[in-house]
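FORM 7B: Structural annotation worksheet

SECTION A. Query
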Amino acid sequence: MGALLSVDNLCITYGSVEALKGVSLDLKEGEIVTVLGANGAGKSTLLRAISGLVPPKSGAVTLNGVRLNDVPAHDIVLKGISQSPEGRRVFATLTVEENLDLGAYTRQKQKREVADAKERVFELFPILVERRRQLSGTLSGGEQQMLAMGRALMSNPRILLLDEPSLGLSPLFVKLIFKIIREINAQGVSILLVEQNARKALGVANRGYVLETGVVSVSGLASDLRKDKKIQEAYLGGAALKEKHPA
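SECTION B. Predicted structure
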């Protein structure tokens, strides 16, 4: 089966700094693929490039074989790619419902479809129904994360880009967010997941890529990456355990 989304030899620079140095990856229909890596590895830059927010220096992003390099960000949303950004970035002075409506901005004429999308979001995140008239800035971190994901789903994407969805959340909310990620995927949405919590990410993903200073250093099935000793030490707590209990 061919890739739904392909990133081919992508290079991104910020001035003289190379953020991505020839990154290639793909996402097939129905998959969850995770991208792991330390802070500064280029993970968020990768998602921003796919979303059309950062122009590539070279390389290509394609959706079903159609090149997206020169497509404006709002048209990329129309083509079926939506992003829930790192740090949630909800509009604090707007209500929960107003935030969701903004997620459907590109579909304003599709009133019935937008209503259906909102209903699906409320089914996934029942707490948002209770909070629908509440200002988003007054929500807890976990509730804001749910809102950011729900807002991204309002455009009815084929591909959902998730940037650090568990960052700063309590263990209870982390568990809930990953349960919902599985549910979104089961509803037919392919997911590219950037996540610091490697254990949780590899637990839900089909495949994974590890980014190190702008380069893919390792890739493979999530089940294989979980067994990789280098990845265990770097991302699954092995190194931390050694520090606590030196030989």
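SECTION C. Observations
Residues 239-247 have pLDDT under 50 and may be disordered. Residues 198 and 235 are 6 Å apart (CA to CA).

SECTION D. Sign-off
Analyst initials: ____
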